[in-house]
Amino acid sequence: MKNKALTYLQNAGHSKLLDVQQQAIEASEKAENVIVYSKTGSGKTLAFLLSVLNSIDLEKKGIQALILAPSRELCLQIESVFRSLKTGKKVLACYGGHAIRSEQNSLTESPTILIGTPGRLADHIDRGNLEALSKTAFLVIDEFDKCLEFGFDDDMAYITKKLTGLTNKILVSATRLNEVPDYLDLSKHKVVDRLAEDDKLEISEHLIEYKGEIIETLFPLLCSFKNEKSIVFCNYREVAEDVSNQLREMGIGSVFYHGGLEQDQRERALIKYRNGSSDILVCTDLGARGLDIPEVHHIVHFQYPGSLEAFVHRQGRTARMSADGHSYLFKGAGTEFPMYITPPDSLYQVNEAQDIPKPNWTTLYFSGGKKDKINKIDLVGFLFKKGELSKEEIGLITVQDRAAYVAISRNSIHSLLKRIKNEKVKGKRLKMEISK
């Protein structure tokens, strides 16, 4: 590996490469085309980003690498990881669910790395916003299996035809591919197969017997986790919302996440979950793929998944990056397990809830972001000076185009709101309130 890739790795706070990262970089140095089989949470994002940075010329102008991903959340995740490498180069994520005009304006000055969903990037090509793709040398398609499942095949073929200057390609998939479409021209390639190793998750599986309503057993179970991150999986959107609302009525906070929410609702839910304003995420299987959520200790199957693949991906939310985790299955009177689930032998005893855990953080919303020339340093300075907070009282900060979210110590939030009520941020009067 070249020294510059190691420097970027250290910039992101990592001291050494994981196996999948080392193998992917070595393969991309030896071959123009690489297929990486690896599950979410294995370190694959850094694997392909470092491979890209190891191969492209960062001093050249124009889009040097194009990264396709099947969802908005995954595009934003990749963008965030790239920024953590501190390359000093422009990166842009393009995806549906928000106005295309802001992306058009950003594309007037080509980024070095362009990330996007296939549908959105095909739209930009049609609008004439991506005319310089003939100079792009590197193509990455993350979660290629999911891109096919979501029906992006035609868009990917269309985009690939515009990339006439390609020299390298990396496909990343969580399932082995029977065949690769001809338009990708991967007749010669190297394979990095980590699926067998990824399956060796250090997960402790628990069987819980219940009587009456499952929610009455779920509640004390979640209370016993204290402030450890947990995900409760449901099969349907309505069930996820209902479970989350019932838990809230019982005194324990959670956020719900599913495909029926508006994009800003989905983003707010994940922001609150990641920054510790909520330690419980109740979601459909949409949350089983493509989300980078570290340190999830507990996976709870409120409802059994519809397939073995869905079960495996749910389990893969925990025991990530060499950590261990726990998985819980409920068993009531007359419960029949799907054929692809082998119930644990030992029963897990759920005791009556003693204390209802409260999150350590609360999310503060600002009605201004990048497009208003507001960044993380501005917000920290404002909260130090006008809010009179210490650095220990400020947590994760997320700045979007027109909004920003800051995790504030739960014990400090109400006094803070009083102190900043009539204050301005960089001379701008913004709405500042607890995020809904």
Summarize this, please?
The protein has 436 residues and is of the alpha/beta class. Helix content is 33%, strand content 20%. The strands form 3 sheets. A 7-stranded parallel β-sheet has the order 3-4-2-5-6-1-7, sandwiched between helices. It has a 6-stranded parallel β-sheet with strand order 8-13-12-9-11-10, with helices on both faces. Strands 15-16-14-17 form a 4-stranded antiparallel β-sheet, sandwiched between helices.
For the record, the count of structural domains works out to 3
Structural class comes to alpha/beta
**Radius of gyration over C-alpha positions, nearest whole angstrom:** 23 Å
Find the CATH topology of the largest domain. Answer: Rossmann fold
CATH architecture of the largest domain: 3-Layer(aba) Sandwich
Mean pLDDT: 89
Low-confidence runs (pLDDT<50, min 5 residues)? none
Counting DSSP E segments of at least 2 residues, the number of strands comes to: 17
Number of helices: 15
Proportion of beta-strand residues: 15-25%
Name the shape in a single word: globular
Give the strand order of the largest sheet, numbering strands 1, 2, ... along the chain: 3-4-2-5-6-1-7
CATH superfamily of the largest domain: P-loop containing nucleotide triphosphate hydrolases
Biggest sheet overview? 7 strands, parallel
Features:
Rossmann fold, 3 domains, 33% helix, 7-stranded parallel beta sheet, 436 residues, Alpha-Beta Plaits, alpha/beta, 20% strand
